[in-house]
Write a sequence for this structure.
């Protein structure tokens, strides 16, 4: 029976798991099929875990069951308690835990196969050169992903500042630390030494990798969070693939490669959407140089009340809603959906303009609006919606700033020059709901605030929308 499992059943189940991972990932590329894709990927993971246990044969299930129970409880509580607005933070943690798990597995292999037996040979001599290299890469990339993701989580949750932290000579420091990691890895892999020296080298490599992850993310500003989250997701996949090579587990290699490749592709999409390169995002500290753009820099801003905004919306035939991070912070997705429903009952055409980097993670706005049961047919990507603004009666911008800033197209000296943006200023009327005239994460002035066809409605997004909803209902009742 064991021979049959090894030669036939296990490979077939691994293949089935890999195929389901691919179809699950494909399903996640569309809003319509996202739930099915997530379910397929979850089933693939379950099959992979069960198959791995079958492949291992006799294992100590006490620790495995304990891990399943504890991890399952943590996951269940998180799924039930974490608000949709906190999804970016949760994704950042998931990325970090994935990288950390890969690093721990690689360290455990070094301990069990090389250090504990008290070999005095190099890891390459015991494990083989390829396994020694991939074990080190798993530690390096996994530890970087863990600490970097934790910093991203702290930035996203507001526990530390979202602005870039630029250390003096940071590139030199990072280079020295990376070379130190590389030296420790080479020593572990290819030099004979006592087990105690191997332990010390592994600790040095791990600690330096963790420090490198922190230093890599602290210069990243809040506006670049969608890119860095996607990049860290890619790194977690690469770390898993490296661990798969160490363990000789094909399905882990495939799953890690899928996550790594898809994360990198998404990272590139995010960079294109911001007219930036990945190198610029990682090393420029974007946002530090921006101006303060306080209210004193504006001279022609017109403030309107929710009642006046409701009157304009009530007479419009087409309305485009632009969601941004302010909508997420105010948890205003249900209020904006209620307003859209009221307008649609009056025969108004309502759609939502989705910028690729709106929010703090890829697809952030899609997730929030899906929670409010906004039909996915109404979510229109930037490339498709931009030509429609010229024939739109009113645009309602809820908490967005940089992604609607005309400076990206009209000021070649602007830090966001060339960044594709939503051309909302071409509509007949633009209404922006913001708490104040403060700048977005790019830290620059938004000239749209002073446009003749723009009206500012100041206040918390949820409260303002609820007031607009109340006014629209009053107007409907009066009619």
């Amino acid at each position: 029976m064991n021979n049959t499992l090894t030669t036939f059943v296990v490979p077939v189940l691994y293949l089935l798991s890999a195929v389901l991972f691919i179809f699950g990932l494909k399903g996640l590329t569309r809003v319509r099929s996202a739930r099915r894709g997530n379910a397929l990927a979850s089933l693939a993971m379950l099959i992979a875990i069960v198959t791995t246990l079958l492949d291992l044969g006799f294992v100590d299930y006490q620790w495995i069951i304990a891990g399943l129970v504890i991890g399952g409880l943590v996951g269940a509580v998180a799924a039930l308690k974490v608000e949709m607005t906190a999804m970016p933070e949760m994704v950042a943690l998931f990325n970090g835990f994935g990288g950390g798990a890969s690093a721990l597995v690689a360290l455990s292999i070094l301990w069990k196969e090389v250090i504990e037996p008290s070999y005095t040979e190099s890891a390459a001599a015991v494990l083989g050169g390829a396994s020694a290299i991939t074990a080190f890469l798993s530690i390096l990339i996994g530890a970087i992903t863990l600490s970097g993701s934790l910093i991203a989580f702290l930035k996203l949750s507001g526990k530390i500042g979202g602005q870039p932290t630029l250390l003096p000579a940071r590139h030199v420091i990072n280079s020295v630390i990376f070379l130190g990691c590389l030296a420790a890895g080479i020593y572990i892999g290819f030099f004979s030494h006592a087990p105690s020296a191997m332990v010390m080298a592994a600790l040095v490599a791990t600690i330096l990798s963790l420090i490198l992850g922190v230093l890599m993310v602290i210069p990243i500003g809040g506006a670049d969070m969608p890119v860095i989250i996607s990049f860290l997701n890619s790194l977690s996949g690469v770390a898993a693939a490296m661990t798969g090579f160490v363990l000789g587990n094909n399905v882990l290699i495939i799953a890690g490669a899928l996550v790594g490749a898809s994360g990198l592709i998404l990272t590139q999409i995010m960079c294109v959407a911001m007219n930036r390169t990945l190198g610029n995002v990682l090393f420029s500290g974007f946002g530090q140089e921006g101006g303060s753009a306080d209210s004193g820099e504006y001279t022609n801003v017109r403030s309107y009340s929710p009642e006046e905004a409701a009157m304009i919306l009530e007479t419009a035939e087409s309305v485009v809603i632009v969601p941004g991070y302010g909508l997420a912070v105010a948890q205003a997705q249900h209020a904006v959906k209620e307003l859209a429903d009221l307008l649609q009952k009056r025969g108004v055409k309502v759609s939502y303009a989705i910028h690729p980097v709106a929010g703090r993670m890829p697809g952030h706005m899609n997730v929030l609006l899906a929670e409010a049961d906004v039909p996915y047919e109404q979510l229109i990507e930037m490339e498709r919606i931009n030509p429609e603004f010229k024939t739109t009666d009113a645009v309602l911008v809820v908490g967005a700033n940089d992604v609607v800033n005309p400076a990206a197209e009209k000021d070649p000296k602007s830090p966001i020059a060339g960044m594709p943006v939503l051309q909302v200023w071409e509509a007949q009327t633009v209404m922006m709901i913001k708490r104040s005239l403060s700048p977005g994460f790019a830290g620059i002035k938004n000239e749209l605030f002073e446009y003749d066809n723009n009206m500012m409605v100041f206040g918390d997004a949820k409260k303002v929308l609820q007031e607009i909803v109340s006014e629209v209902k009053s107007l409907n009742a009066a009619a």
Summary: The longest helix spans residues 87-115. Residues 85-283 form one domain. The radius of gyration is 26 Å. The CA atoms of residues 179 and 208 lie 10 Å apart.
